[in-house]
Automatic annotation (TrEMBL):
Protein keywords: ATP-binding, DNA-binding, Helicase, Hydrolase, Isomerase, Nucleotide-binding
Organism: Pseudogemmobacter faecipullorum
A Pfam family annotated for this UniProt entry: UvrD_C
Domain UvrD-like helicase C-terminal, chain residue ranges per copy: 291-585
UvrD-like helicase ATP-binding domain segment(s): 10-290
Signal peptide boundaries: none
Protein name: DNA 3'-5' helicase
Family listed: Belongs to the helicase family. UvrD subfamily.
InterPro entries, per database record: DExx_box_DNA_helicase_dom_sf, DNA_helicase_UvrD-like_C, DNA_helicase_UvrD/REP, P-loop_NTPase, UvrD-like_ATP-bd
Catalyzed reactions: Couples ATP hydrolysis with the unwinding of duplex DNA by translocating in the 3'-5' direction; ATP + H2O = ADP + phosphate + H(+)
Residues reported to bind ATP: 31-38
PANTHER family associated with the record: ATP-DEPENDENT DNA HELICASE SRS2, UVRD / RECB / PCRA DNA HELICASE FAMILY MEMBER
UniProt EC number: 5.6.2.4
Length: 780
């Protein structure tokens, strides 16, 4: 049988074996998710080593993340691969490039101990450059320039290679700044992330002897997630493989999700051209997901015009359909998922208990994580956030919290230091030092130090005016806090300053918003016209939203310190939370995909974009998401999301409509609705079977309470079928005892009416709660 004497072939199917055995010459494995591309790649490494006797140090293997490299190394060490020798050249493009670059740094004018700049350093350099030329760095922000340069580097354009068509970039100065920046880096003996690859390519191109040395060294090259390589990475590979052409790339055009970062799916097509005679192997059997999950994903991705197309099949039993569930709002969604996770963990008659490690929540945008982190913390559910900082550790969140902390306790010197010059208030290091000295001299906190320094003219220039404003702001915010819900029981309520009229009944939520506005912090990011800034503003909105669930700023700050404490990465089973982008290549028995709403997923940016390119990339992202699931895939959306304290009604995302209906099961919460997605959109997300939603649940839900406060979701302009509208007139059209009809439950009599929810005694279905919009009057 297969595998005897060649254990790495154990269990592989014929096509996979072909891919493992074709060790010499160029090979492209083009196959859908879960078909064993990564596993095949590992088997090839074992085959190269054990069958052909290739030392592992002569095998170059490129993975997409450092984490993937680490995992692969671990798995290679055990059965069926049993590779004991270390894979010293397995890593990401960047980590491999650093290694090469250290040895030949002098060929690009660097020393071998060059430093790699982080984004902050990079921005500071660019900013200095921009300012030196007298250009307004508000209108032409450094971030924008950094993004531009990065794009050029991804395309492997050194300053002299940037085409003339880019001449207008960055106020006609882009190319010039780029060249200058590269010079600056060189004089600092530094390079940025993009340089790592670009310098290697430059070295290979200009020094055939060096290139030949590496071509001999890397006798075999393997690349995972090939669909996401950019031009510079492609050139890097092509140069190294040119001699022996022993290159094997595995990928899936349907999973190309880094177009926004310069990845080019076209590289897959170029492969056959650049490596003539390349063998192409397709794998069609999926080993990861059940048929319903696979069919749902395949059906969805068929909506993309630009794709190579492929068949996928599996021979495992059908399993469960993809579950689709609508929630009232984002908090309900988080609550429901928390409950569902716990219920899966407990198990039941039909399903064995599952470990938390086997469950993941994959979000489109990182700001979505907050609701889950909060909820899981509240119910004590262990979780980990993969790839990227947890919500409360993000820069903008920590800044904002710095302001809140100062407002609550002006004694908080750490917070003072953090925000005193953020946004920039014209206070240099010297000025900040002087404040510290003054505070120490008087034995007071920094706020008082600053006040005293100002009083005696110890700070001059434009910084003085701004610092004064900062101090006054803190005073006023603090007074407002004392007057508000944060007031200690026996506090003397001082009259608030006239600047904030009605401050007495200012809610802590509104106060927090004011703080971020008055401090200039929000406008700092608003003026920062870069993609990153947008995400930060989103996160700040999310922060304000989180505040609504607490009674006071103080209570909220306490909660956050708990979240932070929960940080330690102690062992034990945990639910994973990550973005869809970070989930590439991974698999979990249970996958939750929340937030499938227009504007969130697909993202607003992709919707606004001309043409379909953006939407197609989003659809691939959805495909990646669904295909992470092995047994259970649960897609959800919420009808309402609070954005900056205001309700916004959401429409289920278009991808929901595109899922093939026969593979999807709508989970409709009990008693609250009729049929159809529109109905599901109104639900409270309780299990259909257990019928747990009581009226008390409904009325206690934050969504409902909002409604009572007349903050109904704004009506959406389009497609009323799939959105909620609360119509007072429609309500008054019904009377107690009236006979009504609902699509799902049939005929019934109204027993009670509360707001827009009716309790109806259905003739067949029994007593249910339904929204008024989903019943029509019926003849008695
Ligand atoms: P993705 O496109 O998501 O990266 P992939 O094509 O790389 O997916 P793998 O992760 O290699 O797929 O494999 C998916 C799952 O199927 C893994 O759990 C793997 O161990 C399993 N698998 C792959 N091939 C076989 C096989 N021949 N027999 C049994 N299980 C297999
Ligand atoms: Mg893979």
């Amino acid at each position: 049988t297969l595998g005897e004497g060649q254990p790495w072939l154990t269990g592989l199917n014929a096509a996979q074996c072909d891919a493992v055995e074709a060790l010499e010459g160029p090979l492209l494995v083009l196959a859908g998710a879960g078909t064993g591309k990564t596993r095949t790649l590992m088997a090839r490494i074992a085959a190269l080593h054990f069958k052909l006797g290739v030392p592992t140090k002569n095998i170059l293997a490129v993975t997409f993340t450092n984490k993937a490299a680490k995992e692969m190394k671990t798995r290679l060490a055990v059965n069926p691969f049993g590779l004991e020798a270390p894979m010293s050249w397995m890593g990401t493009f960047h980590s491999l490039s650093v290694k090469i670059l250290r040895r030949h740094a002098e060929l690009v004018g660097l020393k071998s101990n060059f430093t790699i700049l982080d984004t902050d350093d990079q921005l500071r350099l660019l900013k200095q450059q921009i300012q030196a030329t007298g250009i307004d760095d508000k209108r032409w922000p450094p971030r924008m320039l950094a993004g531009l340069i990065d794009q050029w580097k991804n395309r492997a354009w050194t300053p002299d290679k940037v085409p003339a068509s880019e001449a207008a970039a960055f106020n006609n100065r882009g190319t010039e700044f780029y060249a200058q920046y590269q010079e600056r880096l060189r004089s600092l003996n530094a390079c940025d992330f993009g340089d790592l690859l670009l310098h290697c390519v430059t070295i290979f191109r200009a020094n055939p002897d060096v290139l030949a040395q590496y071509q001999r060294w890397f006798r075999y090259i393997l690349v995972d997630e090939y669909q996401d390589t950019n031009v510079a990475q492609y050139l890097w590979l092509r140069l190294l493989a040119q001699g022996h052409q022993n290159i094997c790339c595995v990928g899936d055009d349907d999973q190309s999700i880094y177009g926004w970062r310069g990845a080019e799916v076209g590289n897959i097509l170029k492969f056959e051209k650049d490596f003539p005679g390349a063998k192409v192997i397709r794998l069609e059997q999926n080993y990861r997901s059940t048929p319903h999950i696979l069919a749902a994903a395949s059906g969805l991705i068929r909506g993309n015009a630009e794709r190579l197309g492929k068949t996928l099949w599996t021979d495992v039993p059908d399993g469960e359909k993809v579950r689709l569930i609508g929630h009232w709002d984002g908090e309900e969604e988080a609550r429901w998922i928390g409950e569902e996770v716990e219920s899966l963990q407990r198990g039941n008659a039909r399903r064995d208990p599952m470990g938390l490690d086997s469950m993941a929540i994959l979000v489109r945008a990182s700001h979505q994580m907050r609701a889950f982190e909060d909820r899981f913390l509240t119910i004590g559910l262990p979780y980990r956030v993969i790839g990227g900082p947890r919500f409360y550790e993000r820069l903008e969140i920590r800044d904002a919290m710095g302001y809140f902390r100062l407002a609550v306790s002006p004694d908080d010197d750490l917070a003072f230091e953090r925000v005193v010059n953020t946004p920039k208030r014209g206070l240099g290091d010297k000025a900040v030092q002087n404040i510290q000295l003054e505070a120490r001299r008087l034995g007071v906190n920094l706020l008082e130090g600053a006040r005293s320094l100002l009083a005696r003219g110890g700070i001059t220039g434009k910084g003085a005016g701004q610092l004064r404003l900062f101090v006054e702001n803190i005073d006023r915010w603090h007074k407002t806090v004392l007057a508000g819900p944060d007031a200690p029981a026996d506090a003397v309520i001082e009259p608030v300053l006239p600047e904030t009229p009605a401050a007495n009944d200012l809610s802590h939520v509104r106060l927090a918003e004011l703080i971020l506005e008055e401090s200039g912090y929000i406008s700092m990011w608003q003026n920062d016209r870069t993609p990153e800034a947008e995400g930060r503003l989103e996160n700040l909105k999310e922060l304000i939203k989180a505040l609504e669930q607490f009674d006071s700023l103080q209570g909220f700050l306490e909660h956050v310190s708990l979240v932070m404490e929960n940080d330690s990465d102690e062992a034990g089973e945990k639910v994973s939370i990550m973005t869809l982008h970070a989930a590439k290549g991974l698999e979990f028995p249970v996958v939750f995909l929340p937030g499938w709403e227009e504007g969130l997923f697909p993202s607003q940016r992709s919707i606004d974009e001309a043409g379909l390119k953006g939407i197609e990339e989003e659809r691939r992202l959805a495909y990646v998401g669904i295909t992470r699931a092995e047994e259970l895939c649960i897609i959800s959306f919420a009808s309402n999301r609070r954005v900056y304290g205001r309700w916004q009604s959401q429409m289920p995302g278009r991808f929901i409509d595109e899922l093939p209906a026969e593979h999807v099961k709508e989970v409709t919460p009990p008693g609250l609705m009729g049929g159809g997605y529109g109905a599901a959109a109104m639900g409270y997300g309780r299990s259909d079977v257990e019928e747990r939603a009581t009226r008390a649940d409904v009325y206690n839900s934050p969504g409902w309470q909002r409604l009572q406060n007349n903050q109904a979701p704004r009506r959406s302009q389009a497609q009323p079928r799939r959105s909620i509208t609360i119509d007072a007139e429609a309500l008054s059209a019904f009377t107690l005892g009236e006979r009504v009809f609902n699509q799902k439950f049939g005929y019934g009599t109204i027993l009670a009416m509360e707001g827009d929810t009716f309790e109806v005694d259905f003739e067949k279905a029994g007593v249910k709660h339904v929204k008024a919009g989903f019943v029509t009057a019926a003849a008695a």
